Amino acid sequence: MSSDKFGTSANYKRKEAGYRDQALKLFPWVCGRCAREFEYSNIRELTVHHLDHDHTNNPNDGSNWELLCIYCHDNEHAKYTDQEQYTREVTAGDHNQDSATYNPFADLKSMLKK
Length: 114
Known about the structure:
The chain has helices at residues 9-26, 70-86, 108-113; strands at residues 3-4, 7-8, 46-50, 65-69.
């Protein structure tokens, strides 16, 4: 069995199961990003995201957790890996960035006048 900063893999899985069960009791079964609702039959697709990215920080009140579907959870972590890879942050509203963006509402005012 491998060892990491959480101890053994089995120990980590046990801790993960503990805070996941607790989070599922505290929060409604809804993704905090896309608002997809879950029920018992698909609850395995709802994950616990640590807001500070520290899996050892598990306060009983759930203040470091949010429930995210597997897709939004992957997207949330991809933001950080993308930022590390490209070594620059994309700032909302900054129109002078080199990213490929499309704003379908850029000319909304004139479209509404028609």
